[in-house]
Amino acid sequence: MINDIISLVNNVLWGEYQVLIYILVFAGVWFSLKLRFIQLRHFGYMFKVMKGSTQSDKSGISSYQALCTGLSARVGTGNLAGVAMAISLGGSGAVFWMWVIALLGMATGFAESILGQLYKVRDDHKEYRGGPAYYITAGLNKPWLAVLFAVCLFLGYGISFSAMQANTISDALNHTFDISSVYSGAVITFIAGIIVMGGLRSIARFAELIVPFMGLAFILAAMTVTLINIDQVPGVLMDIFNSAFGLTEAGAGALGAAIKNGIQRGLYSNEAGAGSVPHAAAGATPVPNHPVAQGYVQMLGVFIDTMVLCSCTAIVILLAQGNIGSEMEGIRITQNAMTFHMGISGDMFVAIIITLFSFTSVVANYAYAESNLHLFKLDNIYGRTVYTLLYLSMVYWGANASLKEVWNMADMALGLMTVVNISAIMLLTPTIVNLTRDYQVKLKTTNKPEFKLADVKIQGKTEDGVWS
């Protein structure tokens, strides 16, 4: 019966009715219009705001660490296996629609991250906590809706997603290096346990070290492949655009598949609107000291995830098309494409990269769910211990299990999280617009706008002592 309910919900959200896709596209258009396409107007400023982003105080993490933490959760199987799946099901045109949804998603990511920063609180350890459950409670005064979001978050990021990422790692290592999942699962669980027991600050420090390394390594590999095949690049780009609008031989019949798969995989990869990244945004001590600064930081995260890293995967696959077989799916397509370009070292490279991509997601997922323990008054040694043991048990189990039913539960949890979060941030649109206007007005007179609660009309109220 439970499986039937999960299947029904997933069919509405992701399957036949695709409600979630329509909701997220609408949200992207909505916030792009309300914020006057801030992702295009202030594209350059996204990078400029990162100046001084390594600064933080004892209550939070730096903006740079928040960016890396957000990327560590975003960057995972979606960037490698998800892009391959989009191309195999929707053709090369799916890449174009993946770019479109990323541009729209940048505005949604900007909006939700502002709210995460504005409505953050301090826990008993004087560390910042925040996220959708917090801004739903403080901004909308709907604690029941906040609890619904938090429960879905625990089911998804706290349990299911980490098990799936661990399964991806063990499968890649077993396929390439013939390492038993029993041993790889034990190592993954042990290292993850050491990192997460230090809390958000420990996870942020880990992300700060690993994310730039793995991202640059993958980008350099893709650039090398591109330069070697530079004569084919114009044809690949032309094929992307022609396929995106049904102008190829396949015609309009493939147009719907390109749009559906490009949008769906783009949304799954960058997580804009899902309500996950606001947890990292809330933990930051932004520079400048204004909630909107963290909006720019996380908007940059959406850009890096999809427009840069997903595009790298796409170009590697498309430059190898016709030489990697047609019966494979997911990560195998990416591995074979890289093997075609780089020989056997390509397969090994993808296995190592997917291990790093997935492992960073494992530890970041812990931080997101753990942030909501404060909401239930469980952020004490007993609550954290029980949650940590459950989380680590799922990581080890996931590395050795068949995950079809867990995937279904995770899809449902992510879908419900997104519906709740999108509903909340749209209801909080006046606050988002007022905060953005305040920042941009002050930016005309100073390089570091300071936020003062008295200057901006917001919905609900923030915690006393956080924003004075």
TrEMBL record:
Pfam families: Na_Ala_symp. It comes from Shewanella livingstonensis. The keyword Membrane applies. GO terms for cellular component: plasma membrane. It is found in: Cell inner membrane; Cell membrane. The chain crosses the membrane at residues 20-38, 96-119, 140-159, 179-197, 209-230, 296-320, 348-369, 381-399, 411-433. InterPro entries: Na/Ala_symport. This is Alanine:cation symporter family protein. Coiled coil: none annotated.
